[in-house]
Write a structure and sequence with these properties.
The chain is of the alpha+beta class. It is built from five helices and 13 strands. It is 42% helix and 26% strand. The two termini are 44 Å apart.
Length: 272
């Protein structure tokens, strides 16, 4: 397989992995496109929002005889629910949930009403949304780009190691550099702006995003060390393949799982 073919395969793997991680994560919106009692309902229910403004929840319901109520409370608490009638503007029904502090979460559901009929269109489980501080684009964009390229180079290096390419040392160094810059330098800056702490993984916490990033970087540190010397042998290629598999496994874990969560009772931010 040519070098060009390996790059194409690495790009395909990277794009598929990134899409999977994004769409399966706990911050990806819940999409509704259904019909209940003959009433058509479409929605993209948010599970992440900025601390700088109230979070809108909007349904598209063309049937003007239908109404809806948004029910919410802070999560995880046992406080009383707040019901907010959703205002109609054309085909859209909208209500808002007040902005919460950084890492604060709310749970909510939506009830659709038409005449005497009522349906909870969000299902048996509530939708949980987390609020986060705004991250400056000059930090966020390079962070996302470096992490994406780090994943790409990791896949490409691992494929090249399987093929026995002589460029292993160069590609491994680039992979480690990208993951370090995106995850260990820019990542903590993103975390600080969004949730008020630079690092909430081991040994200070249990944030899964931080911990899996640390595992990925450590795997490539070992691979780079194994590739030192005049000759890159089978041992170095094995470590590179292992490191690429570790990074791939990391990206298979949904983004923001077990992330920063504000404990409303204590005021502390924990991983949950």
């Amino acid at each position: 397989m040519s070098s060009r073919a390996l790059w194409i395969l690495a790009i395909v793997i990277t794009l598929a992995s990134a899409a999977y991680q994004r769409m399966t994560g706990p911050t990806y919106p819940v999409r509704l496109d259904t019909s209940v009692g003959g009433v058509e309902v479409k929605a993209k229910l948010p599970r992440s929002h900025s601390t700088s403004a109230a979070m809108p929840v909007t349904l598209t319901v063309p049937d003007e005889g239908a109404e809806a109520v948004l029910r919410w409370r802070r999560w995880p608490t046992e406080e009383a629910w707040t019901d907010v009638p959703m205002a109609r503007n054309g085909a859209e029904l909208t209500a808002t949930i007040p902005a919460q502090p950084s890492a604060g979460k709310v749970e909510y559901s939506v009830r659709l009403l038409r005449g005497r009929d009522t349906w909870v269109i969000t299902g048996q489980e509530t939708v949980v949304a987390r609020f986060k501080g705004d991250v400056p684009p000059w930090i966020l964009i390079p962070h996302i780009l470096a992490m994406f390229l780090g994943m790409l180079w990791s896949n490409r290096t691992g494929l090249g190691a399987l093929k026995g390419e002589k460029t292993l040392r160069r590609h491994a160094g680039a992979t480690l550099g990208l993951l370090t810059a995106g995850g260990l330098i820019l990542g903590p800056l993103v975390q600080k702006h969004a949730f008020g702490a630079y690092w909430t993984g081991w040994p200070f916490g249990e944030d899964l995003t931080d911990n899996k990033l640390a595992a990925a970087v450590l795997a490539w540190v070992i691979a780079v060390l194994a590739a030192r010397g005049r000759r890159v042998g089978a041992r170095a290629r094995v470590f590179a393949v292992i490191a690429a598999v570790v990074v791939f496994a990391v990206y298979m874990v949904p983004h923001s799982m077990s992330g920063s969560t504000l404990n409303y009772e204590t005021g502390e931010t924990v991983s949950r």
